[in-house]
Amino acid sequence: MPLRWKIAALAASTACLVAAAVGVLVHMWTSSDIRSQAEMQAFNRLYSAMDTYRRTGTLTDGAKLDPAGLPAALRHPSDGARHTAYDGRIDGNVGPSAWAAQRVGGPDSPVLAFQVNMSPQLHDLRRLDVTMTVASLVALAAATPLAVYGAGLLGRRLRRVSETAGRISAGDLDARTGPTQGRDEVDDIAATVDLMADSLGRRLRTERQFTADVAHELRTPVGGLLAAADLLPSGETEDLVRARVRDLRDLVEDLLEISRLDAGAEHPVRARVPLGAVVSEAVARTGLDTDVTVADVQPEEAAETVETDPRRLERIVSNLVVNAHRHGDTPVRVSVEGHTVVVRDHGPGFPPDLLRDGPRRFHTGAAERGSGHGLGLTIALGQARLLGAELRLDNAPDGGAVATLRLPV
What we know:
- The radius of gyration is 46 Å and the shape is rod-shaped.
- It has three domains: 3-140, no CATH class; 185-263, Signal transduction histidine kinase, dimerisation/phosphotransfer (DHp) domain (Helix Hairpins, Orthogonal Bundle), CATH 1.10.287; 271-406, Histidine kinase-like ATPase, C-terminal domain (Heat Shock Protein 90, 2-Layer Sandwich), CATH 3.30.565.10.
- It contains nine helices and eleven strands.
- It is α+β, with helices and mostly antiparallel strands and 409 residues long.
- The protein has helices at 3-56, 72-75, 119-169, 185-230, 236-263, 275-286, 310-327, 352-357, 376-387; strands at residues 63-65, 83-87, 97-103, 111-117, 271-274, 291-294, 305-308, 333-337, 340-344, 390-395, 401-406.
- Strand 10 (390-395) and strand 11 form a beta hairpin.
């Protein structure tokens, strides 16, 4: 259930409880007041009737001696004082009633009583109950839409904060909630989310700048090492040194490429090229044993072409193929169909955290996926975004990692 409906339901329930409580209290107070007034009226009328009876021996209108309907509590008063009692019985149009009674003389003398009919007042009380019930329903009907509207405003503000947090979680560190209406807890949450995004952005920019600075500083000495290694005489040890220096050079070049992608300094040079031919050439340049399958094209149809940067497309495909051989297992197959390129190996597959969070630098995900710097997939993903393509990483149901590249039409 959406938050606004929960808030509206809570507000309506609270209003119902308050209205019911007020109605019960008003009914009880009014009923008690009616009874007190009726008993006081009966008491005063009895006082006047007793005075007349003692002076003249006659009964005033409404006064009775030992009436048959007198409540049992007043039939045998033990003293000569006046007493009152409530009788809830209804006889025709009379009742409930308030009675007042007093003996006219000694202990065995008759009891003079006076009855006050409370029916009109109780009828008014019932009308008051109905009026309060109707008024409560009308107020509830008017308050519920207002509660829904107010809760909707709160829900929209919270949804705005949630959407911003989702964009930040997806990697958009420039997303901000901005000022929200009202100075309340929602505004505090929005400000906190924006501060978090600022902090993450500063930290990420610092890390990216550090990576770029390290790569730039290492480029010259690594180039010198490579030149010096090439001057070494042939031998197993010398060949190992040259291989390690080349690995170091490749690492520095990868870091530089990532830093340029992070800085937005890369710009694709697009051209319309045959997708199958570009993919086949990229796979061939890796020198790795990889099966390439291009969907059959009818003789009368032209080969599938895409408008993209062929150099960056080759970079993506070669990185995916090298990653499949390094971290997966043979056979490695590349298939091209339409605007889609699929690279699949038959190894342990991508680790769960990589599928959940995406590739991370210097993180291969699992020991069984072999060694490496964890930069190949990061570069492939960055180049795919630059080309406006979608790179999806999955695991096949029967085992193995599957990388699917979908180029824009």
